[in-house]
Q: What sequence folds into this?
């Protein structure tokens, strides 16, 4: 069975500091991995994905994520946080060998960036 | 911006009423999904479709039903709304490409309140 874990319900950082939002996954085969962001009363917006190739993936709004197969992790990072980055972040996974299935999401991590 | 639309954005309705939440996408995606999300919480897959006349139930049991008569349209219906149905409903779509698993695009969501 596929699953995603986001161990932190909330991450607090000061503006200008680097941020990390953690994600670990479990799939029977190789994963496709995704990060989404959700602002209040909105749908989910796609940030970035790992399909294959370089383990460091760059996405929208200066975010990046590093795929680590040995640790089964896909942590989201940004070198310098902005107050406007405050939102709810979801990690998602799909087993590459089950291409027809829907994305499985983690529980979400609330990022709060203080000025 | 993704071309996937949900109506209405907000709906307050009395117990026992029949409701249909609309979802349409103009990207020609064959796969469509409905997720249920309580505010600020995780997403639960309730229905999905791989194409016209294909519908499946998701991981979370739901009293709602769906239909897929046209590729672009994936409405969700509750025959008799109850307060326990109060939640946010998110529609999403994705494409199938041989050898490539693309991200899902989300609508803005419908926030349903049953009183």
A:
């Amino acid at each position: 069975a596929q699953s995603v874990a986001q161990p932190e319900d909330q991450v607090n950082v000061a503006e200008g500091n680097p941020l990390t939002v953690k994600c670990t996954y479990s799939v029977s085969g190789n994963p496709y991995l995704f990060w989404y962001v959700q602002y209040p009363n909105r749908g989910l917006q796609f940030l970035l994905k790992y399909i294959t190739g370089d383990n460091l993936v760059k996405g929208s709004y200066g975010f990046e994520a590093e795929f680590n197969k040995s640790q089964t992790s896909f942590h989201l990072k940004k070198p310098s946080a902005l107050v406007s980055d405050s939102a709810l972040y979801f990690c998602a996974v799909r087993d590459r060998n089950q291409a027809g299935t829907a994305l499985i999401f983690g529980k979400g991590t609330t990022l709060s960036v203080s000025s | 911006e993704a071309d996937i639309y949900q109506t209405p954005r907000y709906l307050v309705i009395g117990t026992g009423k029949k409701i249909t939440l609309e979802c349409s996408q103009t990207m020609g995606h064959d796969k469509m999904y409905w997720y249920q999300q309580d505010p600020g919480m995780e997403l639960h897959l309730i229905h999905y479709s791989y194409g016209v006349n294909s519908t499946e139930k998701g991981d979370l049991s739901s009293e709602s039903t769906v239909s897929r008569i046209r590729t672009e349209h994936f409405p969700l219906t509750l025959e008799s709304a109850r307060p326990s149905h109060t939640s946010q409903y998110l529609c999403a779509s994705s494409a199938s490409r041989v050898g490539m698993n693309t991200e899902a695009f989300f609508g803005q969501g419908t926030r349903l309140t049953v009183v």
Remarks:
- The mean pLDDT of chain A is 92.
- Chain A touches chain B at residues 32, 34, 36, 41-46, 49, 51, 88, 90, 94, 96, 99-100, 102-108, 110 (CB under 8 Å).
- The two ends of chain A are 41 Å apart (CA to CA).
- The longest strand of chain A covers residues 87-95.
